[in-house]
Design a protein that fits this description.
Structural class: mainly alpha
CATH architecture: Orthogonal Bundle
Helix content: 40-55%
CATH class: Mainly Alpha
Low-confidence stretches: 124-136
Shape: globular
Oligomer: single chain
Strand order of the largest sheet: 1-5-4
Number of domains: 1
């Protein structure tokens, strides 16, 4: 995965934890995205709403949603978020207590979530997107 995509996911992880706190700790992915769209100073509404067309398949997609979903998967794998149905999300004790000022996504999340290689493999196996399709 390219550096830009990792940086984008890392930023989304911080913003998602912050949004979940603002929403009371229990919420859905859609509500988190809406909170980020409406209240984030780091991620613009334009980035959140951007829609692109794949050069290879012609399918329209939202790059932010893909990066957002991978960021949430990383947070779940690193035990910052709990979920039973992958729809309803809840901040874990770890997610509630983490200091977002000192939060280091590479140290605190990626070192745990990528330790077995599952998420890294999923990210590289996206079938309908090519890294060349994504512009920032």
């Amino acid at each position: 995965m390219t550096g830009k995509l990792v940086e984008r996911e890392n930023l989304i992880m911080c913003e998602a934890l912050s949004a979940m706190r603002s929403l009371g700790g229990q919420t859905t992915r859609k509500e988190i995205r809406r909170e980020i769209r409406d209240h984030s100073d780091e991620i613009s509404e334009q980035i959140n709403d951007e829609q692109k067309t794949s050069k290879k398949s012609g399918v329209k997609y939202h790059p932010f949603v893909d990066r957002f979903n991978f960021a949430i998967k990383h947070l779940i794998a690193a035990d910052f978020i709990n979920t039973e149905d992958n729809r309803n999300l809840e901040l874990s004790e770890k997610g509630r207590k983490v200091d977002l000022v000192r939060f280091d996504t590479n140290r605190d999340v990626r070192s745990v979530s990528e330790s077995d290689g599952t998420l890294k493999k999923e990210a590289s196996n996206k079938t309908n997107l090519d890294v060349d399709d994504i512009e920032f």
